[in-house]
Amino acid sequence: MRQLCGFAGVLLLGVSCAVTDPVAEPASAPARDAIAELVREELARQKIPGLSLAIVEHGRLVRAEGFGFANLEHLVPAKAETIYQSGSIGKQFTAALVLMLAQDGRFALDDPIARHLPGTPPSWERLTIRQLLQHTSGLADPYAKLDLTREYTEAELLAIDGQLPLLFEPGAKFSYSNMGYHVLGFLCSHVGGAFYGEQLAQRIFAPAGMRTARIISERELVLHRAAGYELEDGQPKNQRWASPSLNTTADGSLYLSVLDFAAWDLSLTRGTPLGAELQAVMREPARLADGTLSPYGCGWSVEPFEGREAISHGGAWQGFTTFYLRLPREELSVIVLTNRAGADPGVIVKRIALQRLEERGSRPGSVTAPR
Length: 371
Prior knowledge:
Helix content is about 30%, strand content about 15%. By secondary structure, the chain is α+β, with helices and mostly antiparallel strands. The strands form 3 sheets. Strands 3-2-1-11-10-9 form a 6-stranded antiparallel sheet, sandwiched between helices. A hairpin with a 4-residue loop joins strand 2 (about 60-70) and strand 3 (about 75). Helix 2 (about 35-45) runs antiparallel to helix 10. The model is unreliable at about 1-25 and about 365-370 (pLDDT under 50).
């Protein structure tokens, strides 16, 4: 007789639902799966309902699977195909589109944003497109002033953004700003002749083979869509609702699966649709006014990982948390997407990366300082 994993068991143990046969005995003990063990350990420790992971090594997708549940109410297991909200790991696609438009000659990265986007406030006249990409613009975050349940027009969002004083002189410091990427999305839509999400689909998602990546739409039917959760008194609750207009901004409002992200990672190795020259721009850290380098390029964090050159990014939004790590020299990339607000998928990604490197017998390497 087949047995179904219970709801309570999943929450307490953090394991995916499995089918068992109490009669049949295995011929031999299965080989130890260290990665599955550490993932299940983190599911239980962090009380994550479900997650999907992908590992890309040496130009191949070597592992893609789900653990736990994509939907607790219907007990739908998480799979490789499960669709999650991206959170801020989606910023790298906005950055890539901005660089493509600059390569097309629509603007230069060091142009003031006000030259190409109508409706910007006078205080932004010194802000450049590059500074927005690199989070060195001095723009604050608007979310404290926004009603997440209200519909906003682009003009209204720009007006709210413009009311906030600059935190510092543009280029002086690094300060992460979702507002900056809102503005970059507006720029792409204005100069690109179509909504930035349509441009992402045409210029990045389709050429890269990201078959299910798209802008968030809670109204449309989306196959394999996960539910997002928050913990309240230790118990999972459904994510809070946000208005459609705030779920289409360019700071990371995407649906995607780990298969989509693996396809993106493989496309970076191929150099299409984003060529090596533009990837180099994304990896180049910002040089601040005092001459020091920031930990961020254009849509990618460039902080080393265990002494190795790395690019990475995390994300969190509406009951989802995400993390991506790429080690170019080791030809290793790991992506983890979860459906729990407040979870730390970065811990899981880094543990997986270290496990794979240990299995290879790899040792920490030296990092060449950026020029």
